[in-house]
Backbone:
């Protein structure tokens, strides 16, 4: 959180651009960590307000899915949701090189359940592949090592995704975007458990 806005400033300077040159701000809405999503969305809202840019939110796993090889007709993206769960999203192409289409909304589910549905013909990518538990249920379905950039959103792919979203939507007011947490935090669950025990 401390470094995000200085990094944006430095990136603009290196490109010879000013904040006022920004026409839109794209921001991943999750799923992901509570703190990371809150910081990212707050920074995006602040910049959009300050420079009058449009704000566009997108599914963070869809941004990762766009890294899949063009010939992959079935793509599964997985993130580590902790507590034995995964964040899961599935996409398909009608033919190699065609656009990726989401098959269902991104969801959270138990790793054991997700692992039974992994399509042997799919390419599996995502930040969850850094988890030994998740890797252990896959058999040579990922095209890259766990630390490869293919498993994380990249700037070029996020720009492509936001451009596609803007083709059908003008963007939203900054206050109209909410993080997609998919579940309550552990702290909220613990608080309710303590309250119920009183």
Residues:
């Amino acid at each position: 959180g401390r470094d995000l806005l200085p990094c944006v400033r430095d990136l603009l300077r290196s490109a010879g651009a000013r904040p006022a040159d920004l026409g839109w701000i794209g921001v991943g809405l999750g799923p992901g960590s509570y703190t990371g999503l809150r910081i990212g969305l707050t920074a995006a809202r602040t910049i959009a307000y300050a420079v009058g840019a449009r704000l566009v939110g997108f599914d963070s796993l869809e941004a990762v899915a766009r890294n899949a090889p063009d010939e992959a007709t079935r793509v599964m993206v997985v993130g580590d949701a902790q507590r034995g769960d995964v964040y899961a999203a599935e996409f398909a192409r009608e033919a190699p090189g065609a656009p990726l289409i989401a098959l269902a909304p991104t969801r959270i589910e138990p790793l054991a359940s997700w692992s039974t549905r992994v399509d042997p013909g799919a390419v599996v990518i995502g930040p969850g592949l850094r988890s030994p538990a998740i890797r252990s249920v896959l058999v040579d379905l990922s095209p890259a090592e766990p630390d490869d950039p293919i498993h994380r959103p990249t700037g070029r792919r996020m720009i492509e995704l936001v451009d596609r979203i803007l083709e059908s939507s003008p963007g939203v007011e900054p206050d109209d975007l909410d993080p997609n947490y998919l579940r309550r935090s552990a702290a909220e669950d613990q608080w309710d458990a303590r309250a119920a025990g009183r």
Summary: The two ends are 36 Å apart (CA to CA).
